[in-house]
Amino acid sequence: MELLNSILVKPFADMIAAPDFLLQVLWEGTVSGVLYALIALGFVLIFKSSRIFNFAQGIMVVFAALTLVGLHQNGVPALLAVPLTLVVMYVLAYGIERVVLRPLVNQPDIILFMATIGITLFLIGFGELIFGGENKRMITEELMIPTGSFEFEPFGGFVLMEQKDIVAVGGAILLVVALLIFLNKSKMGRAIRALGDDHQAALSVGISLSTIWVLVWFIAGVIALVTGIAWGARAGVSFALEVIAYKALPVLMLGGLESVSGAIIGGLAIGILEKLFEIYWGQPLLGGNTETWFAYVLALTVLLFRPQGLFGEKIIERV
Amino acid sequence: MFYRTAGQFKTDYQSDFALFPVRQDAWLLAFILLLAFVVFPMTADEFTFRALLIPVLIYSLAALGLNILTGFAGQLSLGTGAFMGVGAYACYKLVTIFPEINLIVAIALSGFFSATVGMAFGLPSLRIKGFYLAIATLAAQFFLVWLFQKWAWLYNYSTSGAIQVPNIDMFGITIAGPNAKAITQYYVVLCVVAVVTYLAINITRGRIGRIWKSIRDMDIAAELVGINLMKAKLLAFFVSSYIVGVAGALFVFLWRGAAEANLFDIPLSFRVLFIAIIGGLGSIMGNFLGAILIVALPVLLNTVPHLFGLSISSSAVEHLNVMIIGALIITFLILEPHGLARYWQVIREKLIIWPFPH
Questions:
Q1: What is the pTM of this model?
Q2: Which pLDDT does position B213 carry in this prediction?
């Protein structure tokens, strides 16, 4: 009875008793959810257009952020470092397509998946070799991102919203909108979607596979840079950031591997729910640190009812 | 010429079903066993045992377990490290609760714990497939490692949160713990690995193995010809996790000597997966070849700069190692996606017709 009470009643009583704290938790969850959604978006784009499960997306986030900070440390002005980092991400995308993906066309999925793990290891070693393994500060002020904070006092309480988080959420929304417009309205975007629908048909109407792959990996790199700046501003830049890649995987399960909207909604849902669970159930009952696995268990439960995720394409199998 | 099978007649089914229908295979195996049982122990020193021979065997065993699941039954799993952890912690609890238990028995029993846990996490495989399943097994990975940290009973409430292997005797010889000699540990590991490998070969080439392969190739078709998918998939998870659990127990008790929960985190899972894939999915021998490669590479890479008289700081060497291993994985996948085992097949074909190529 005691246990049931602490599982079913007490958390909700706590929520109602301190609505300002609940709002704070919800806001924190939203911010991390937006960032999970961004990483998941990078995954989805690459999976849609090439059926490659890109494990390296998380490390691309770190790599992009490290390149930006590293360039700035070597005397490049911050606003020039951003376009330079984009150039580096383009070179990376081109290199990956040329060296890794092209020779592996038509191999089984698991081989390509392993290759992206190989890329992950390579980038970790390469990045640490060049930029060093220690934790670095993100160049937030230099990029003209405000660092102050707003305070609200709803319900007689106190809620703190950091301006850089608001900028991160705003930037993410802008990026997603731009991406959706690009995918749906531009010629290149249509080519990407065509490739996602049917490789053979897309090739036969003259869409160049390698151009699109480089483009898609580059877009994933741009997303990685935005995520890297936003996350780096919160937690500093180091390879410890790669754990957020593991956070994006359950988002994919929840939303479906092929669905852009699934990635966004799944990311927000997981970000908010895992924070709520950690604060109200995890810390009092399970000794905390439940954020490492909660998202997976949640996604697993959903998958048991919808094997293709909430928004994934229905799996039709024929013998 | 070397692999000519002409003249080796089979007059009954019994001999056709034999483990080695080709005589040269049996000789080759005998040679390898001779190396493993006699030549290596006589020539190796303490460092070679600890840095090469024992880890190669243990990683091969873990990869073998994973390969049964991924290579034979076609269910991609990323939770191997956690299942190894279950085996290790189960063995630790068994040994500390029943101190008079024989270590081999404890290791064999601890496999059943990880097998049960593995089967429970294999349940989603009945509904979900492919990458969705791979991510689902990551749930096991993160949840179990979290449990190893938080459930103090598992490590007997020690303040460090780590498990420490006590000295364990068997027939008057110390085989585990700080006092054990590397050579005895090597022999114990070798015997366990040999027995499990023998069993695994026979499981995978028999009825059960064929059922698994048919599921791997197309599970709907397998179901239509009357295979019970649920039973077969769960059995694959059971057998695979059993072997992985045994490997985990050996990993801690006969090699590392102590373990924290972090040891079983995701890099371990990936290392085992690399071994299975670089060795060759769906091959038993591939696991051993892959393990030799993955274990020996860092050791080799550490010695290379010294050979050329270069002085690189040790952290740079470490980063270079990670980078080179990543590059090598990609290279191997490009050169031979079917793994090292495939190379052996090619060599065998060549040896049959050598020296006349047509």
A1: 0.86
A2: 92
Interchain CB distance below 8 Å, A114 and B277: yes
Contact A293 B130 (CB under 8 A): no
Under-50 pLDDT residues of chain B = none
Calpha distance B262→B163 (Å, rounded): 12
Angle, alpha carbons B284-B290-B295 (nearest 5°) = 135
Instruction: Determine which helix (DSSP H) or strand (DSSP E) holds B7, and give its type and residue range.
Output: none
Chain B contact for A290 (CB, 8 A cutoff): yes
Residue B45: partners with Cβ closer than 8 Å, 6 or more residues away: none
| Three-class DSSP labels, chain A | CHHHHHHHHHHHHHHHHCHHHHHHHHHHHHHHHHHHHHHHHHHHHHHHHHCCCCCCHHHHHHHHHHHHHHHHHCCCCHHHHHHHHHHHHHHHHHHHHHHHHHHHCCCCHHHHHHHHHHHHHHHHHHHHHHHCCCCECCCCCCCCCCCCEEEECHHHCCEEEEHHHHHHHHHHHHHHHHHHHHHHHCHHHHHHHHHHHCHHHHHHCCCCHHHHHHHHHHHHHHHHHHHHHHHHHHHCECHHHHHHHHHHHHHHHHHCCCCHHHHHHHHHHHHHHHHHHHHHHHHHHHCCCCHHHHHHHHHHHHHHHCCCCCCCCCCCCCC
A293 and B334 within 8 Å at the Cβ level: the answer is: no
The residue in chain A having the minimum alpha-carbon distance to the alpha carbon of residue B220 is A319
pLDDT at B117: 92
Query: What CA–CA distance (Å, rounded) separates B117 from B111?
Result: 10
Chain A segment 191-230 residues within 8 A of B by beta carbon are none
pLDDT tens-digit map of A83-118? 888 999 999 999 988 888 888 887 888 888 888 888
Q: Does A285 touch chain B (CB under 8 A)?
A: no
CA B218 from centroid of its chain's CA atoms? 25
The answer to whether the beta carbons of residues B276 and B290 sit under 8 Å apart is yes
Nearest chain A residue to B266, by CA: A246
- Does B128 contact A126 at a Cβ distance shorter than 8 Å? no
pLDDT tens readout for residues A231-264 = 888 777 777 777 777 778 888 888 877 778 888 8
Please provide the DSSP assignment of B36-66 as one string.
IIIIHHHH--HHHIIIIIHHHHHHHHHHHHH
CA A124/CA A11 separation, integer angstroms:
41
Query: What's the pLDDT tens digit per position in B278-295?
Result: 888 888 888 999 899 888
Report helix, strand or coil for B280.
coil
* Nearest beta carbon to residue B330 from set A118, A292, A304: A118
